[in-house]
Design brief:
By secondary structure, this protein is α/β, with parallel strands linked by helices. It is built from twelve helices and 24 strands. It has a four-stranded mixed sheet with strand order 22-23-1-24. The radius of gyration is 21 Å and the shape is globular.
């Protein structure tokens, strides 16, 4: 059953010669943050290139429910009239965050130091995911959380009336946890300090500075120490959202494994805390190049050109790269199936608690398609069969996970027999134009 209506069964079939330009939607991580910080600024923030997938639209609804005025022009420009730091109103209804772990955790952080109460829920997948990793540090500010057993949604957060500044060391690499603590620190007095031993995506730090917060990062033997001065007046911004590297991963990887392909994927964010997949693919021998490298809105971007790469080699992906490509391991495992040799992925236990257990979901589906996969709690390996040698022919479960569904649809473009997914509906949460975009490039993807 899909959390987004009737299941949409989809299949992908052997294709050749993907070509053209892939116009990827805006970056999901940056889109969430633009809406939330725009809602906390004083005045009007404008956003162009916002990802209009269900996850981000749910965050926009939540910001409206907490008092921000948000409108959209016909040309796709969004206008956010913020309420100021600490100015959220108490929502009248339960906040439904759909499938978005990023959305719910960031919103919890943003409201945790305001004297309001809010109840959060989500779809069947989100309601299984752990929230204690966020509510534990929010409790240090003085917020209270009451939810289901195991720290799961639905959950009510009672914001702190007299919040305290916090010094918190993030126990696992998580940009969501780091960002939730920093957003909570906005309405706490004094300095809020977050320590992370492994660097994670830094969109929150960049955007907080852009909105006028006083924030600094120091790299020490202890790790990255991020210090935020509390209770700033955030200044409205004009934000152009770069295109999402996590979404770009799918047409890029499809081109690499599909014979005769040559595609251009323009304006992709190459923030070093997000670009680990592209580095890894190039180490595997992928014909993947960066063109027109530049900076937009404080974020490095480039146009990616990806060509069919029949001589990919299995490699060992360094554990310290995991945080920069955690969402891309499912589709990397697809590419690994077409490489020669074994691809090893370590330091990836975070994949166990995403929208699904992504290691288990991909391992099960790949095995059903004739690929050898070994796994442990914090690692997995894929033994490649080389181009043209992956059997395929299975129906794979998406587990209400958009990235699992898209990864298996990419797989089927180069297998001997078609690959099906039981439900492609969740793809709309992050990449609503995936199907027409891939079809326009020449991918044989069908609704069954």
């Amino acid at each position: 059953m899909s959390g987004h209506g009737t299941p949409i069964r989809m299949s992908s079939h052997a294709s050749t010669g993907l070509s053209g330009e892939a116009a990827i939607p805006g970056d999901k991580s940056i889109s969430h943050r633009a809406l939330i910080l725009g809602a906390l600024a004083v005045g009007e923030t404008t956003v162009t290139g916002l990802l209009e997938g269900e996850d981000v639209l749910d965050t926009a609804k939540a910001m409206r429910a907490m008092g921000a005025e948000i409108t959209r022009d016909e040309d796709g420009t969004w206008h956010i009239h913020g309420v100021g730091t600490g100015g959220f109103a108490e929502p009248e209804q339960v906040i439904d965050c759909g499938n978005s772990g990023t959305g719910v955790r960031l919103i919890m952080g943003a409201m945790a130091t305001s004297p309001i109460t809010a109840t959060f829920t989500g779809d069947a997948s989100l309601n299984k995911r752990p929230m204690a990793r966020v509510t534990d540090p929010l409790a240090l500010f003085g917020a209270q959380a009451v939810g289901r057993s195991g720290g799961r949604l639905p959950m009510t957060i009672v914001g702190a009336r007299d919040p305290l500044p916090v010094r918190y060391e993030v126990p696992v690499p998580s940009a969501q946890v780091k960002s939730a603590v920093l957003l909570a620190g906005l309405n706490a007095p004094g300095e809020t300090v977050v320590i992370e031993r492994e660097a994670t995506r830094d969109h929150s730090e960049r955007m907080l500075a852009g909105f006028g917060a006083t924030i600094s990062t120091e790299v020490t033997n202890e790790g990255r120490i991020i210090t935020l001065q509390g209770q700033p007046e955030l200044k409205p911004q004009s934000i152009a959202v770069p295109r999402d590297p996590s979404s770009a991963a799918f047409p890029v990887c499809a081109a690499l494994i599909t014979e005769g392909s040559d595609i251009l994927v323009p304006n992709i964010g190459l923030n070093p805390t997000r670009a680990g997949l592209f580095t890894t693919l190039r180490e595997m021998g992928a014909d993947l190049t960066y063109e027109n490298q530049r900076e937009e809105g404080g974020e490095p971007v480039a146009d990616l050109r990806a060509r069919f790469s029949p001589n990919l080699k299995g490699i060992s992906v360094p554990p310290d790269r995991a945080a920069s490509m955690i969402d891309e391991y499912p589709v990397l495992s697809v590419v690994a199936a077409f490489a020669q040799g074994t691809t090893e992925m370590h330091g990836v236990k975070e994949l166990r608690v995403k929208e699904s257990d992504r290691i288990d979901a991909m391992a099960t589906g790949l095995r059903a398609c004739g690929v050898t996969v070994d796994e442990g709690e914090d690692w997995w390996t894929v033994t490649g069969l080389g181009h043209g040698s992956v059997p395929g022919g299975a129906t794979c479960e998406s587990h209400l996970d958009h990235r699992i569904a898209m990864s298996f649809l990419v797989l089927g473009l180069a297998t001997q027999k078609p690959v099906s997914v039981d439900d492609g509906g969740p793809i709309a949460t992050s990449f609503p134009v995936f199907e027409p975009l891939m079809t326009a490039l020449g991918a044989n993807i069908r609704r069954d």
